Structures are given as structure tokens and as C-alpha cells.
Fold this protein.
Amino acid sequence: MKRRDFLSSVGAVGTAGALSAPALLTTIGRATAQGNDIPVGLLFSLTGAVAVVESTLHDAALMAIEEINAAGGVHGRQLRPIIEDPASDPATYADRARRLMIRDKCVSVFGSYTSASRQAVLPVTEQRSNLYWYPTLYEGRECSRNVMYGGAVPNQQQDELIPWAIENFGPRFYMIGNNYVYPKEENNYCKTLLAKHGGEVVHEEYVPLGHSDFSSVINRIRAEEPDVIFATVVGDSDVAFARQYHAAELDPARMPVVSLTRSEVEVKAIGGEAAAGHFSSAPYFMGTQTPENERFVESYKSRYGADQVTHFVSEAAYFQVYQFKAALEKLDPANITPETIRDAAVGLTLTAPQGEVLIDENLHTHLWPKIGQWQSNGQAEVLLQSQERVAPLPYAAYEGQTCTGEGLVRA
Amino acid sequence: MDVILNQMFAGLSMASILLMIALGLAIIYGAMGVINLAHGEFVMLGAYAAWALQTYAGFSIIVALPFVFVAVGAVGWIIERVIVQRLYHRPLDTILATWGIGIILQQVVRLSVGAESRFVKGPELLSGNIEIGGLVMSNYRIFVIVFSLAVLAASWALMTRTEFGMKLRAVIQNRQISECYGIEAKHIYSVTFAYGAGLAGIAGALITPLFSTIPTMGTGLVVDAFLVVIVGGLGSLLGAASAAVLIGEATALFSMLFNDTLGRIAVLAGIIVLIRFRPRGLFPSNTRR
Amino acid sequence: MTTRLFYDLVALVIFALVIVLGVPALMGFDGFELNTFARYLALGIASLALALSWGGAGLLNLGQAATFGMGSYAMAMHLKLKASGDGLPDFMGWNNVPELPLIWVPFHSLGFTLLAGLLVPAFVGGLIAMFMFRARIAGVFVAIITLAFLVAFQLVVIEEQGITGGQNGLTGLAPLNVLGWSVDTYGVGFYYLVAGCLVTAITIGLYLTHSKFGLILRAIREDADRTRFLGYNVANYQTVIFCISAALAGWAGMLYTLVLEFASPTYMSVSFSLAIVIWCAVGGRDSVLAAAIGAILVNLLEGRLSDIFVEGWNLMLGVIFVFVVMFMPRGLNGLVGDAWRFIGGRLQKERTISTRPHLQPEPVKSGQEN
């Protein structure tokens, strides 16, 4: 009896030792071993709740890498994508980011969709002076020198949208968003714009992420009768919201949903019929008519299937890889580090599917905002396109603070 | 006033969805004492089955329902045969095993169908609203409410008015003695599990026009469904129905007074207190265990 | 000292040697690998905390992640205050919080933080335990109540963004500074800090299981009513072990924040809580040491599998887990025990056969008495 207990406890330790020994513990040095390649990390969730969107970003970024490699790489060297799946969990993001940046010695990592995951990666990328290419629209108020922000910040999505919405539908806004920092910041900025242009907020509310029953919200909307539903609901919450909004037969002509987050992916899941008539503000829609976009959409579809869609985040995931490549080309091949890549990327222009984009010295991107109305075929018709490229102002809602090439400056 | 009426309808609608999901769980839990954490994944399978039938065979959701029921029921039957059956004498371990099964089902669907959100079209017939004064009721939601009541009635009839139901009740009362009378308890359990899984599948198919169909959609649902079963009481169908209405209406009420998050927190707190003082639920059945 | 305790201690010493000497040597004292392994060790503490209440007393606590999260937030609050200097933590500005909430003020002190990281979880765990066990709630209902509490608690944390940072959690933390030693999470020193904590926690766990207290808890696990008839106050014993388990989970949470350099509400999610249960089950719920090893092994395996099979590792994890629950209910601990018993049995048989011709069967030693 006692001996058995002893043996079992000791044996368990022994198994642990035996199992964990060489096979599991010694995988160091894999990154540098393979000669001349340039290791880049891809950190998009392929499983879990965020995978719905992030898998498309993964596909777009991977496609860009393979296109570049097929065309001969950079300086005659191939980009070697190292793929990790952070499974939609912030702790796993942090863990996988460490692997990519420290163990695999990637010179850049492309990744993630949610703010929470970006923040989980931040401590590693800043400490290790690495470079994190983040393709998603986000709430601003961040000025890291180690993140390349490819998506829109509030001023880029809202400056044109809000006056346009007030003029076309009326001044009474109903704000609905998921309960986290992104919707709150967008709404903060929206309120300053509303104050400027004579609009008002009739109700502001936040539902938990992943919330799926909007009957109470819809009842409130029906009771308040606002002119515009200003939506910052994300992911499957947005899908559920749009479907139930449609099922409740609220008329998009009278109470349109104006969304900052709804893209072709969500619309595909919502169904064109339910999404039709509502609006989104984004720098890119799948139907954008530029030669670059035609090429992008065509190769995306031929690679991943004709029923696949591109959208404003996957477009950024795609062009950021090309920005990375352009920065590498400006560099001496012997001197490729995350910092030199960053410095070479500042001021770089590139013709992306949406138009010519420019990397600001604050590492955000100058973009071409558009307002699109969803049609029943799942595509957006662009109603309004910004006349000029709009500069990113991540601190637009906060007077006296600017994000510059030297980081955050407080006046 | 209109607001209150509309909110009551919203609560009823939430309750009907909860009931649809919880009913299968209540039957499985009541009959075998198995806490089936894979139940949410059965719901997900039902949603995907409805999607597949609509996309590849052109079935509308309502036509697809019987097929979904059979398909998900069959999956449930296999899982019961292969895994759950071996764990009846270890109830806490069934929690763990079914959680693992849930992970497996989720990953299988993700790997075979893909992670993206799938679109299922609601039935044309049931689009639109009925308006009575200020009360606006979506036809589809009314349909779900009626349908859930019908399923409740059918399940009750199955349990109390059929030979199968009689055998099941006998096995629940005393497995050994029932087996002495020639009832094959093993077989009864398999069929009951399959029936519960099939109901979950129907629930999944029914909610697809309202929710987003993704591989992880079941995870959030199972906790809620569980609370319904526990509040309702061991193996009591009527209990599950009343608990669903109670929780749905309470959520709607709190959501009207505060917001959806606080509504959920308040309901959870209420449930914890309720379990503390009535651990056998609101409507415990009188079976001896 | 009983024999069983002696052997457990030997196992502990071997384990300690492996993680203190073997693991760092195998990994060539590489900062990144040590940091990753330190994460597994921290999770090992969470798993052994669960083994104390689940294996030791039969109370399946599905809300373990809540107390884990409390510890991790306590530590994160301290480090966030340090990172913010004299100003407000940045996220409070975003949420229009004018001044530091009262609950944050004492976290300026490291001493208070460490105490709070242990005592707040213990206190909350104790409250829930008293609430449940006074009413003689047992079995599945314990699991459900703790699960409901976890869901509600996580919702509160996400809702109160001004205080907790909401969905994004607490990020942008300063490094920990203990008595002038600034902790570098990629350093060998930090690894030994975590390893030391784990060994200490296991020692505490072993002490508890081998004490009279642990014996009574096992009696309660087997039959609460009979133990009650013997005059023991079952609820009090259950409450105390719940408190201890919660405090250990809080301790694990504090270390986890240090390793990952942020605290997130996902540390309090249902899936994380069930993951802890999985580790514990894989290792063996009956032994604190085995539970800790289970956590380390599963995470190590997960780390490696996800490297090799980016697409399919989640599926494998599910399959492995179902397999373990079905065929190895006592976890690796039980499996290893059975294997030894099998080998031991064979040896015994051989010995009996070989001694038969001499007609002088030696008495088979079966070990000393308890």
C-alpha cells in the first residue's frame, strides 16, 4: 500500500521528467537556423470566438507574403511566415507573441483584431523593441513606437460621417455598442462631433461582448424613435443585432444603423437582405474600383474560394505586408532590425486597394474614408468618398495631446 | 405602458429560446443525472445542420427541423453509446467528459466547415410583425414561443403517455428493479440522451435566423440553459418551463430598468440565492434517487 | 512521520530538483524558455489549489478562476499604480474617472498588495463556502453555484471599467520591485522565485493532506453525514479548505500577472476555470503534487502541439482529455500507480514461484504500518 503510493508519486515525477526532457524542452534556435530567410510572425486567431474575422486577416496577410515570395522575395531573400494560433485568448496572445519575437526572432509580427489582444502583445513588443503590425480600426489614444497601426482611428471614420448623417437623417443619435473601450472611445469622439454639428444623444448603451439577444435594445429603440442608430457592436453580436433589427421590421430608411464596425464579413453572415439599406463608414469596401483592388479581390477569391469576401481590415492586413516589404527594400540587407524597418516605413507611400496610403510619423496610416450603403447582394455602394486622404489623429478627442514621431506630446 | 408590454414579450421570447435549449438538458439531467456540458455544442450542430440543409438541399428551416432532429439525435446517440454510458456511476466526471466532447465537436465543425459565421435565411412565411396597439410582436418570435410550447407538450406526453415514457420513469425510479422486469435500462438511456440531443438540435436550427452561426455559439448558451434546469428542479419539465419564463422575464425587466449587463448579474445572483435555499429547484419531482 | 508522508516528501524533493536544476539546465538558462516555463509553474499552483478542495474534500469548485483573477488583479493594480507614477492610471482617464477610487489607494503598498492577493480571495471564498455549506449544499450543486458566481463576477469586472479596465484588463504595468530588486521576468532569478513559490505551495498542500485536518476532510468526502454524526462540524472544515484553496489560487494569480505582464478578465472565464479542472484531472486530483504536474504537463504539451499542429491541436486536446476522464479517472497519478502495482505484482509472483522448491516462502514485505 505505502510502497505503491510512493512509487506512484515518484513515478509521476519521473514521467514528467521523461516526457518533458529533450523533445519538449529543447526547441531553441529554430529561427536562425534556416539560413537566409527573413522570419515574420503571423499572430491571428484561427480558433475561438474572434476566429470568424481573424482567420480572414490571416488569409490576406499570408497571401501577401506568398505573393512577395513568388515574385522573388526581398533582396533575393524569402519571407518565412511563422504561424501561431492564439485561440482568441489574450494570455495566449502574450505567450505566442513572446515565442515569435524572442524565440523565433521575427523582425516583425502581423496580428490581431481586438484591442484586448493588442494590449496583451504590447508589453512584449515594447520591451523587445519589436514591431507589431496591427491592421484593425481601433479607438486611438495610443502612441506606441513599436506598433504600426494600419486601421482607422476615430477621426478618420467619423469626421465626414457624423455631419453627413445629421444632414441626411436628423440630429437624434442612439448609441449602441459592446461594453469595452473601443465603443466608448468612438462614442466619446462622436459626442464632441455631435456637439459641434448640433446633434444630440438620445440614449447610450453597452451590451456585453458576445451578447446575442437584442429584444430589449430594439424595444428601447422603438420607444425612443431616434434618427440614427450609431452602432459600434462587433462580431457575432453585430450579426445578431442586425438580424433581430431586421426581424423586428424597423425601417432602414427611417432609422438607419450607421456602423463603424460592420464590414463584408459581418454582412455575409447577417444576410444581404437584413443588412440592406444600412450604412457603414470604412476606408475600403470590396467593391472599390481601383486596379489594385481588382487584383486583390481576384487573387483572394481564386485562392480561398469564390464565396469569400474581402473587407476593410483584411485589406489593411494585406497592404501592411507590402508596406513591410517596401520598408525592407529601402534597407541595407545586413541591417534589418525592427527599429530600422520602422524608421524606413515612416513617410512611405503605397498604392493599396483603397488608394494611395501613407505611413505617418506617428506610425498610424493616412487613409481614404468612405461611406457605403449595404445592398441586398451583400456589397456596399459607396455614397460618399473623402476628397482627400485623411490624416490619423489618435488623440483627436482630447485637446492638448498629440501623437507625434517622438511619441505622445502633451501641450 | 407599451414599453412594459413590449418588454414582457421580449422576456417571453427569450424564455422560449431558453426553454428550447434547456428542455433537452432537463430531460437528460432528470433521467440520468448527467450534467451535459456538450449540450451547447448540440445546439451548434443543429444550427449547422440547418445551414447545410438550406445551402445544399434548399430546405427552409421549418422543413429542415425533423431532419435536424434526427441528425443531431443520432450524434447524441453515438456519443452516449461510446462515452457517456461508461460514466453513469461517476456523475462529476460526466461534467468533465462532456466538456471535452464539446471541445471535440467544436473543433470538428471548425475544421470541416470553417470558422466563419454562416448565414441561414429565416422562413419567408414568418417575416413581419403583428401589432396590437403599441405592442409589436415579430411573427418569427411568436412562432418560436408556440413551437417551444408544442415541444414541451410533446415531451410531456412522451414521458407520461407512452410505453417508452413509462419505462423511462421506471428506470429513473429504480434501475435494478426495472431491469428485473425486463426493461433494458441501457437502451432507454441511449434513446433518452438522443432525444435530448435532438431537441437541442431543433433549438439550434430555430435560433439561426436570429443569432450568428459560428462554431463557438454553444459555449455561452449552455451555462444559461443549465441555470434554467437547476432552478426548475430535477427532471421536472414544468419546472424547466416556469424557470425559463421566470429567468427570461427577470432578464427583460432588469434590462429595462438598468441595462443588459446588470440584468444578467442580477439574475445570476438571484439564482445563486435560490439554489442555496431550494437546492432541489422550484418544482422538484418526487422521485427517490 | 508516516511512511506515506515520507514517500510523498521524497517525490517532492525529486520534483523540486527537476524544476530547480533539471529544467533550467535542459533549457540552457534561456530567458524566453524560462519565462514560458514559469508560466506553467504558476498555473501549477492554481491546479494544486483545486486538488485540495476537489480531490481532498470532494468539492468541485468551478469558480476557481474567480479567486485566481482576484490575486492577479491585486498584483496588477499595484504594478499599474507604479507605472502611472503620481498620475491616474491611463484607462481611468478614458473612462472619465476624476480621481483614484478608494479601493485602489492601499495598493500603493507592496505589502498590502501581497496580503490582499491572498486574503481577499480567501475571504470571498470563505463567504461563498459559508453560504453554501451551512445549507449542506454538496456535489453537483457546489459546481453550479461556483460556476454561476464566476460568471457573475466576471461580468461585474468587465462592467466596472473605471475601476478594473473592463474587457482589456490592466495593461502597461511596471516591473515588480521587491526590496530594491527589480524583477526581470526573463531572468533566472524570476524563474526561481516562481519555482520556489510552487514548491512552497506543494509543501503546504502536502502538510494539509497529511494532517488530521486532511484526514477529516477525506472522511467528509466519503460520507459527510457519518462524519457529522461523529461530531465534526462539516461546514467549518469545508469552509476552511475552501479559503485555503482560494488563497493559493490568488497566489497563483499574482505570479501569473507577473509572468504575462498584464491582467485580463479572461483569467476569470468559464473556459479558463474548466481548464484548471482539466489539468487537475489529468495529473490526478488526489495528490497536490500530481495536480501541479498535470498543469505543467498539459500546458507544456499544449505549447508544443500548437507549434507542430497549428490547426488541429485543440481537437487533440479534447480527445486526450476525454480519454483521460474515461480511462484514467485518477489521472497520471493513478496510471503510474497501477503500472507500478502491475510490475510489483509480477515481481512478487516470480519470487513466490522461485521460492517454492525450497518450501520456505519468504514473508513478502508489505511496508510499514501507518
Remarks:
- Chain B touches chain A at residues 2-3, 6-7, 9-10, 13-14, 17, 107, 110, 114-119, 121-122, 127-129, 136, 138, 140-141, 209-217, 220, 252, 255-256, 259-261, 263-264 (CB under 8 Å).
- The CA atoms of residues 167 and 182 of chain B lie 10 Å apart.
- The longest helix of chain B spans residues 2-32.
